[in-house]
Automatic annotation (TrEMBL):
The keyword Manganese does not apply. The keyword Lipoprotein does not apply. One of its GO terms (cellular component) is beta-galactosidase complex. The lineage of its organism: Bacteria, Pseudomonadati, Bacteroidota, Sphingobacteriia, Sphingobacteriales. GO terms for molecular function: beta-galactosidase activity; carbohydrate binding. It is an enzyme of class 3 (hydrolase). This is beta-galactosidase. Gene3D superfamilies: 2.70.98.10, Galactose-binding domain-like, Glycosidases, Immunoglobulins. Residues 309-530 form the Glycoside hydrolase family 2 catalytic domain. Residues 208-306 form the Glycoside hydrolase family 2 immunoglobulin-like beta-sandwich domain. GO terms for biological process: lactose catabolic process. Residues 68-205 form the Glycosyl hydrolases family 2 sugar binding domain.
Amino acid sequence: MKLNFLAGCARILKPVLFTASLLIVNWYEASAQLGSQQIKYLSGRDNRTKVQWDFYCTGGRKSGYWTKIAVPSCWEQQGFGAYNYGRDYKTYGKNFRFADEQGIYKLNFAVPKAWANMDVYLVFEGSMTDTEVKINGKATGEKHQGAFYEFKYNISNKLKFGSNNLLEARVSKMSADASVNNAERLADYWVFGGIFRPVYLAAYPKQHISHIAIDAKANGDFKMQVYPEHLKQNMQVVTQITDLKGKLLKSMTANVRSTDSVVNIAAKVNNPLQWTSETPNLYKVNVALKSGGSTIYQTTEKFGFRTIEIRKGDGIYINGVNVKMKGINRHSWWPETGRTLNDDIQLMDVKLMKEMNMNAVRMSHYPPDKKFLEICDSLGLYVLDELAGWQKAYSTAAGKKLVKEMVLRDENHPSIIFWDNGNEGGTNKELDQEFVKYDFSKRPVIHPHHKPGNAFNGIDCNHYEDYYSSKNILNDSLIYMPTEFLHAQDDGGGGTAMADFWDLHWKSKRSGGGFIWALVDEGIVRTDQNNIVDVNGVNAPDGVLGPHREKEGSFFALREIFSPVHITMKDLPANFNGTIPVENRFHYTNLNQCTFNWELIDYRKPNETDGGYITKKKGTLTAPSIVPVAAGNMQINLPTDWKSYDALTLSAYDPFKNLLYRWVWKNTNERLLNKVMDLTGTKPVQVTETDSTLLLKAGTISMTFNKRNGQILSMTGNTGDNLSFGSGPMPVSGTATFKDIRHRTEADGELVEVTYTGDMKYARWKMFGSGWVSLDYEYDLPKGDYPYAGITFTYPENFVLGAKWLGKGPYRVWKNRLQGVVDNVWENAYNNTQTGSAPWIFPEFKGYFADIAWMEFNTVEGKFVVAAKEPNLYVRLFDFYGLSGIKPFPSLPSGNLSFLDAIPAMGTKLGLKIDGSTAKLGPLSEANHLGGTTKRTLYFYFGLLEQAGKNTQQFTRPVVDELFDSSPSTAPAKKLKGQ
């Protein structure tokens, strides 16, 4: 006979935000009506509402004496015991033994006299790891072994009703069962001790329903198993199916004999709204035990109509539609409280995944809190619910009990699509049929693995294949759905290379999608180390979010890559007429169910205190009818003067009005710089020359060149302060040997020409009377592969306060992660964040930044601005890395302030271990294939633009026409006068 450890709990923990004052109350009654389950919490309900129990820790900190502890909690976070990461045995050797503290808990509690004739269960939602329980000195049952599973004891015959009772629990951090330790503790994650999820009493009438199991198919076929308990006479089971508003859809009545252990219910609901990640339609089933017209017991469960199919050699089908999982792996985690969470955190994590346009999540590497699954049901995420087993499996004896507990708790959640039997070798195949045995709806079981040849049920879940091996697998006969790929340690993986990977999976018939490793950096607040946030070196900073859900660059890249409104147009065509090609990458949603808004905007100037942009005109467009996985066009009816604005934006919203993505296409740099630069000036540029130096001066701005190498020797801004900008330009790839430096006076300024032998050809500086300076340069690289290309200078990093720019942002990019950044006026204060490490200040200040029109540097010496005539300029800001290691990756160009035409790709922790390069991650991850001549013009202003504006006027249209060529950017740059 099945037992339900959670009968009615799903409806008890409603998605509300509990305040501390409300949670002081320990009572919750499911209903005032006689015959319903009643609950009394003995602990708090989450990490914010903990109840103090008596506690004795046997080892480590605060051990050897009785004190108090908050329950639920991980006891390390309450200052007890010792910290362990699951792979400490690698650090300390084969003789290492985990801290094996035991925690002894005591709690005095009262039970109402009215419960004397009820079945009363003591329920633990999660306790790490072995748990032995006594009530009033009597053992409640066998020791429970397994940390992440709900278990319960019937304690009715041990209670003193209407009086005080004593609960005693002994929790051992390490299990006496070696297989439990192997599966749960010797793992690549933090391991804790303690009662980390809530504890409560659940009271039922003697005659009640212990469990209901639902199987509701997409076509409306509804089946249910009802498990009555302790019936004394024949009764009826009355079932009502309603929508969430209470509208009755179907009512059924079945007779049940007192000897029956299970009642089967079947019905047909016409045209139900189906449950998918895009349409998370839920229903309720109300089940009542009745005798002679009186209700003896009743309970309610939510469910969804949906059908799961694995069509071998074809794909994964939900409700008859081929679906690809846009997924990520998620640990139950919070830095201050470890694995003890609250409803806000559960909701936040689901919303963050939905914000990334994901439709799936894998539970790594254990079942989550119930609330998380409820939110996945209601907001729409496909779930892979996982039996623990990190590279080593439970024994059959231990695993059978835990599979039963897991399945009976979770089986009615429509969000759960697969059961995962362990992880990466932690699969005990003898347990496969245990899932089938207890799951009434017979969901598929899969085997997540890191080695080929472990496919199960037609699905290959092999981890961390590269782009090309993935391509081979997808061309084979199995469905391929990697349950881990693109490992996101530090700033690698995640969104890195995902554009190539996702395009490959999306276009492959037998792809089931995949799951990135992982959602969050598992940084724990160390109560033994002055509350530092510890990620255990390179073991745990694997997220696209920081420990407190700080958004990294990959978060936004994934949002664009996974957007179901798929737009690849990078720039506005010269003949743009408002038509935008679009692909519908929804599985169930027509694009005409979405909403689209457009704006014409003007960007603010560097010297304006408010950054960003001003909306000048806006409107909506009629959403085109494009069915799922089809392509078409959308049409923006733009005003005739649309070209006179700085940029066009388009925002797409799903049917629930959630923003999917916002695209921005900016105007030419010609227009953008016309608002910023001033190349006029009535006073001539002063020239002072010595044997070794050449000084140009316009007002208070001066530049001194070293005549022996052609580089900038010193500089003064318009405030009269020195600026330590110099040591360039030098090429970051190729050769440059100084040849000569010459200067001459031209009508609009002073020209200094530096020539070289080698791949760098020349650098032509011109100072205008306004103080603006232009730099034309040319280099000619031999055909080959290069990590980067462009020119570089130096500036003291410790002098930098921040930067403001017009270009892609606010996050840095890599060659194979250009998504997720849009054009705007951005401003970042200086920080020294290395992704995956404290202090998790995002966006990172240092890195490669894309498509810069202008960038203003704020320093302790004053400000200076760099602007680009041509598009597609990358600016490298100072010294940083993507992946930590013996040698941080990738290598950096010389200097520390670089202006580049090509930047390197980023790799992954595991990918670099294979061959030390990124090339196997796909076409965008290859080195830059370059060769030939490159010309570019940069403009500099050293000082405050506010000061420049007081003394000069904007340059006129004829000057703009002279400086900017309308020919394509690949054409030779237009020569300045006098050349």
